[in-house]
Amino acid sequence: MNVKVVATNRKAKFEYFLLEHYEAGIALKGTEIKSVRAGQISLAEAYVRVDERRAWLMDAHIAPYDPASRFNHEPTRPRQLLLHKREIRKLWDAIRQKGMTIVPTRVYLKEGRAKVEIALARGKKMYDKRHAIAKRDMERELNRQVRYRE
Fold first, then answer.
1. Cβ of 16: how many Cβ atoms within 10 Å?
2. pLDDT, position 1
3. Got the DSSP string for 50-83?
4. CB neighbours (10 Å) of residue 87?
5. What is the pTM of this model?
């Protein structure tokens, strides 16, 4: 399968426990897909809002496409996510629980179409983040030790 990752949300794994992943299409305008193909997208501040019928990608920044000049799009407009009804219903039920949210983890091109991977997530507490940092540092130190011995 032809998959090209365009953008990732690196903070998502650090800030949240990612429980379930979903693949969703994104309804984009012509200038937006051209910017996405050029890699001009940021998920740093992005989140997903779900109502009973639709899912929306909010605050994802897609840079204006320079050759389009005055026909450009709004960089942070809400974009509809294309999911099955049962997936939207499942997400809607899940986020009504305390502490649950939906975060975009990456945007990629699959067979010429822009897709976003979203994850049902639960926020980490500060001590969980400290534990993750300690684990990462310990693994890094072990890798240094192994490389030093070789």
1. 22
2. 67
3. E-SS-EEEES-EE---GGGGGGPPPTT--EEEE-
4. 17
5. 0.81
Both structure tokens of 148: 């030093």
Cα 113 to the chain's mean position, in Å? 16
Helices (H), 77-125: 85-95
Residue type, 109: L
* Torsion sign over Cα 117, 121, 125, 131: negative
| DSSP label of 98 | T
Q: Max CA-CA distance within the chain?
A: 60
Q: What is the pLDDT of residues 93-114, one digit of tens each?
A: 999 888 899 999 999 999 989 9
Sketch out the chain's domains with CATH numbers.
Answer: 3-123 (2.40.280.10)
Identify whether the C-beta of residue 59 lies closer than 8 Å to the C-beta of residue 46.
Answer: yes
Give how far Cα 83 sits from Cα of 32, 55, 91, 105, 122, Å.
19, 8, 10, 16, 21
Q: Which of 12, 1, 37, 27 is nearest to 106 (CA)?
A: 12
CB count, 10 Å around CB of 149? 6
